[in-house]
Amino acid sequence: MAEAVLIDMFSEEVTSHHYCIKQFLDAAMNIVLKKSDATSSIYIMYCQTFGCDNNDARGLFLHAIRSFQGLKKRIELISTAGVAATLYNVKQKLDESNISRVQIILPKSRTCLMKAFIDRLFTQVYTFEYVLLELNYAQPENSSQSSNVEQAITEKQLELVECDIQIFLGTLPARGELTILKSPLIPESLFNHGFTTRCGGVSCIPELSSLNLYSSNIRKDSPAVVAENLRRLSVAVGFSSKSFYLVKAAHASDVWIMGQKEPDSYDGIVTNQKGVTVAAPGADCIPLLFSDPVKKAYGAAHSGNKVRHMIS
């Protein structure tokens, strides 16, 4: 059963009239009463610019749910200028409460669009149940789409989703100063190199804060946040994030020689190609960098803690 419920009020059809708001929230709250845990948090998400100022909007929503007094203490209204910012705000609240099972109540027409945001801002650590509401009130005369039909998302819409996320994440303040440590053993005139610290990124998960550069299905840090951390690192150091390669660590001995077929997993990368950045992760493991100034070759390797434990 869901530990938190998100109610999507971003649709113009939902917020076009006071009656529409009340009808949608009535239906959503009845679903909450029937299908959610009695202690689950409820987040009503809406856009600040849906037609009235923020205080008026809050008043409308609070008035619309006045008949559900038993739920009021569990309800929080969350409003920002965009979907990405709102979902990011919600995710922080979920993470603070260690919540991973989430129910989303939304108009059927917005399902694919919402899933596109969720896929980019969350990982598989979280499970989402989508409850689709069919809207029975009349559509605006100039509307060519029905809210009761699940609309397939277009390539253009996907680009807008990714743009919304990237722009928002780019506005977040860095957590600490981005610092690059250099090795005197590697000639700086030949190889742009360095070791990052934990500081200077935007990741807010405590164990991953803040310059996390690795995303996986078992972590809470989303691919979008990791991509923003990498973007900031690339700007600071001077490389292209599009030609950045991180080893796919498996605590084994496989090495990928760039130019040959890429293995499914490998703990080392070597190359002599120009304009390529290779890297290895390090947490309780040790990242190693290699350079050959004669052959102009370089590499990165992940020295896993499992191997070190076996040796010690």
TrEMBL record:
<dbReference type="Pfam" id="PF02578">
    <property type="entry name" value="Cu-oxidase_4"/>
</dbReference>
<keyword id="KW-0378">Hydrolase</keyword>
<keyword id="KW-0479">Metal-binding</keyword>
<comment type="similarity">
    <text>Belongs to the purine nucleoside phosphorylase YfiH/LACC1 family.</text>
</comment>
<protein>
    <submittedName>
        <fullName>Uncharacterized protein</fullName>
    </submittedName>
</protein>
<dbReference type="GO" id="GO:0017061">
    <property type="term" value="F:S-methyl-5-thioadenosine phosphorylase activity"/>
</dbReference>
<keyword id="KW-0808">Transferase</keyword>
<dbReference type="InterPro" id="IPR038371">
    <property type="entry name" value="Cu_polyphenol_OxRdtase_sf"/>
</dbReference>
<dbReference type="GO" id="GO:0005507">
    <property type="term" value="F:copper ion binding"/>
</dbReference>
<dbReference type="InterPro" id="IPR011324">
    <property type="entry name" value="Cytotoxic_necrot_fac-like_cat"/>
</dbReference>
<dbReference type="GO" id="GO:0016787">
    <property type="term" value="F:hydrolase activity"/>
</dbReference>
<dbReference type="InterPro" id="IPR003730">
    <property type="entry name" value="Cu_polyphenol_OxRdtase"/>
</dbReference>
<keyword id="KW-0862">Zinc</keyword>
